[in-house]
Amino acid sequence: MNRYAHVVGWGMAVPEKVLTNDDLARMVDTTDEWIVSRTGIRERRIAGPKETTASLAIEAATRALEVADISPDEIDMIIVATSSPEHIFPSTASLVQDALGASRAGAFDLSAACSGFIYALGMATNSIKCGSMNTALVIGSETLSRLLNWSDRGTCILFGDGAGAFVLRGSDVTGGVMSLVMRSDGSGGDLLTVPAGGSKMPASYETVRDNLHTIQMDGRAVYRFATRVMIQSTREAVACAGLQLSDIDAIVPHQANRRIIEAAARGLELPEDKFVINVERYGNTSTASIPIALCEAVEKGRVKPNDHLVFVGFGAGLTWGASVVHWDVTPPPPLDTWGRLRRRTLTGVAKVRSGLRRVGRQLEGVVYGKNAPEGEEPPHVKKK
Ligand code: COA
Questions:
Q1: CB 136 within 8 Å of CB 112
Q2: Active site residue 240
Q3: pLDDT class for 190, splitting at 50, 70, 90?
Q4: Is residue 357 part of a domain?
Q5: The one catalytic residue among 254, 278, 295, 308
Q6: Nearest CA to ligand 1 atom 31
Q7: pLDDT tops 90 at residue 43
Q8: How far does residue 30's CA lie from ligand 1's centre (Å)?
Q9: What is the CA(252)–ligand 1 centre distance, in A?
Q10: Is 254 a catalytic site residue?
Q11: Residue 137: CB within 6 Å of ligand 1?
């Protein structure tokens, strides 16, 4: 029997703080008129001191689980697509796993820049289809504001913070994610990069002085690449799904720049109103932009049950990808008081469980670590 991966839950989270173009014009030599005419962006959200990539991911994931009406312990795998992880390791996904109390879930981060959400959707879908898991939480979450050079007007105007999440579930019913295209061209790696902070150029006085931990971009080259691959990969994903462009009800593109989306619409000979666009309010939230746009489109009734959707994105790497999804779910009714109480209890239990595990690990260290004779294995390791 064939297995299919269906989207059964979705959620988003954005910081409260809004940074408008006029605010930016007080920080760098730019104007609202320049930013709107070149990008379509009017404002973006910026994480507050207590908000992080993980905290936004947890908020979006909690909402997605509510829509899907499933418990965290039903999740088999958590994938966080991000370019602004909390640390090099542990993964942001592991922090999300702990906070949600997803006690049975594996967890990993996925790095494919702004195409990351499509890639994560692809990894989860293929694992569900081959039967190695049944329920996956796929998250795109970013605090790119922390990787920006706030004196570089060519980049700091473009990006914003936020998170979006999908719950995917296996089913024998045909539908859900129908096709996937995932591509890369590393020869363009230098066009969009954060050069320092990895193993090639570890943090040093010089890297910090020269702003090498921030986003560096050749905007024009990225623009040309983006318009080309948006058109190509949309056509390819639609053909792989066995559909025509005329069968597509809505395209949810990566929200980098309104002009890129308009160019893609012209290239595909589709009316602009086929495209879900919210870049004016959030800027480019990288891996989060597609799920955030989708959540808003569902909320507004722009995406309806049984629609055929295209998700399409591009980003550093260079990477790009597209997917056709049959949006064949009707969201369950909102949780009643009992449901909300149950969910809150589970989150509370997750916190307690996480705390107890930490204490347990410390005790283990005291009992078996310091006092154990040198060379002695812990008790769960069988003696030779
Ligand atoms: N405000 C005012 N002027 C600005 C500016 C700003 N924020 N940023 C750049 N400029 C200036 C430049 O300095 C340049 O001036 P000059 O001609 O005197 O040198 C001029 O505007 C044109 O710059 P250019 O970079 O050629 O502008 P552009 O029309 O290509 O627009 C981008 C710049 C970044 C908006 C556009 O290239 C773009 O959107 N590229 C894709 C980026 C992207 O999507 N990245 C993320 C991928 S996931």
A1: no
A2: no
A3: very high
A4: no
A5: 254
A6: 38
A7: yes
A8: 11
A9: 24
A10: yes
A11: no
Residue written as token pair 């954005």: 14
pLDDT at position 333 over 60: no
Cβ-based burial of 77 (10 A; exposed 0-12, middle 13-18, buried ≥19)? buried
Q: Please report how the helices 92-100 and 53-68 are oriented relative to each other, as an axis angle in degrees rounded to 10.
A: 50
- For residue 253, the CA-to-ligand 1 centroid distance in Å is 21
Residue 180 maps to which CATH number? 3.40.47.10
pLDDT band at 341 (very low <50, low <70, confident <90, very high): confident
pLDDT at 330: 59
Whether the per-residue pLDDT at 213 is higher than 90: the answer is yes
- Ligand 1: residue whose CA is nearest its atom 3: 30
Identify the helix (H) or strand (E) that includes residue 205: helix 205-209
| β-bridge partners, 315 | 319
Q: How many angstroms separate the alpha carbon of residue 187 from the centre of ligand 1?
A: 22
Q: How many domains does the chain have?
A: 1
CB of residue 154 inside a 6 A radius of ligand 1: yes
Q: Which domain holds residue 140?
A: 4-327
pLDDT band at 217 (very low <50, low <70, confident <90, very high): very high
Query: Tell me: the pLDDT tens digits for 355-376?
Result: 999 899 888 888 876 666 666 7
In the predicted structure, residue 329 carries a pLDDT above the cut 90: no
Its pTM stands at 0.94
Least trusted range by pLDDT, from 36-40, 168-172, 249-253, 340-344: 340-344
Residue 15 located in a structural domain = yes
Record the tokens describing residue 110, joined without a space. Answer: 């996925």
Whether residue 272 lies inside any domain: the answer is: yes
Cα–Cα dist 305/165, whole Å: 18
Number of CB atoms found within 10 A of residue 60's CB:
29
- DSSP secondary structure of 281-335: HH-B-GGGHHHHHHHHHHHTTSS-TTEEEEEEEEETTTEEEEEEEEE---PPPPP
Q: Establish if 363 belongs to a structural domain.
A: no
Other beta carbons less than 10 A from residue 346's beta carbon: 16
Backbone φ, ψ for residue 141 (5° rounding): -145, 140
Cβ(220) – ligand 1 distance below 6 Å: yes
For ligand 1, whether the C-beta of 92 sits within 6 Å is no
Round the average pLDDT of the chain to a whole number and report it: 94
